[in-house]
Design a protein that fits this description.
By secondary structure, the chain is an alpha/beta fold. The chain has helices at residues 9-30, 37-50, 61-71, 89-96, 115-121, 141-151, 208-218, 239-249, 252-270, 304-310, 340-346, 360-374, and strands spanning 54-58, 79-83, 100-104, 126-129, 154-158, 166-168, 174-176, 183-187, 201-205, 222-224, 227-228, 276-277, 292-296, 349-352. A seven-stranded mixed beta sheet has the order 1-9-8-5-4-2-3, with helices on both faces. Strands 12-13-14 form a three-stranded antiparallel beta sheet, with no helix packed on it.
Amino acid sequence: MRKISMVDLKSQYEKIKPEIDKSISGVIDTTSFINGPAVKEFQTALEKYLGVKHVIPCANGTDALQISMMALGLKPGDEVIAPSFTFIATAEVIAVLGLTPVLVDVEPDTFNISPEAILKAITPRTKAIVPVHLFGQTADMDAIMEIAKKHNLFVIEDACQSIGSDYQNASGEWKKSGTIGHVGCTSFFPSKNLGCYGDGGAIFTNDDQLAAKMRSIVNHGMTVRYYHDDIGVNSRLDSIQAAVLNVKLKHLDEYALARQQVAAAYDKAFKDQPELTVPARFIRSTHVFHQYTLLVKGVDRNKLPEFMATKDIPAMIYYPVPIHLQKAYLDPRYQSGDFPVTEDLCSSVISLPMHTEMDAEQLNYITSSVLEYLKGPRK
């Protein structure tokens, strides 16, 4: 049996090696390493795939969030609502810009931000909402956009884990995750569903003026060389990473299907286990399974990764500490117990290996090992 990894990038690369090597070699041959033709090619291809007017490539997903907030004109003291159950980058960029992160709870089934919690958190200082499409499926964007419209708020979609997911709105129209709000952001970190071989990210919008502003910001605030109209940053997707992404974008839907098949196999193996709750699927969103995350009850969740390690199987906890209880983000507004769903999830979730190259032998070994653990001593 092949070694089991949380994400098997080596096996994935081996399948597309000729395409990848040719694409990278093309960049090296041209020596256009920054903003070369490969970047423009990828930008155009991703715009077509997403059905969005503008894609602005940048250096990483965290930059994508920060640049979006800068372009929207958010100012120090403005409040931005975000979930407490997510990776730290979502709140980090809010704090870095001197904005005020307003953390809220999530839904107990999908783990995505709760529209009801958003409503309760709005104040006269609220300027934006950042729904995080966690683990691979889109949040309830109809409800979120309705709230935003009513309260005149921006919506910045954090689609770093959900690229390729489809969302059906109340009118029956299907849209890609990240293309529904005012701005969408994604990451091309290697382990993402669409990952490059280094750091990378992108921003999406259908707003022409906003796109122009973001294109300026990512390039030191320049639209004309050496003329700086905006306060900017240096955040570019390099051409070699774009060359990798040009190849992998063509396989993205195929990769999503492979992940969904792995998820279905896990579901089948665990469906009759009272200690385990398999991932819920939001009826209006497809799930592209950046992570396959179980809820564990009635057994010691914290010892499960240790047990799996004895079997040479990785298992990860995303996320062990909610943002409102992180040392850097402690705030008198928030106390332990304020966000019961988030805090419960942090003590009960575990993610199993999930990638495009999983085979039946590996899946059987993983699932049988989890089931073996469940037969052990209870708390």
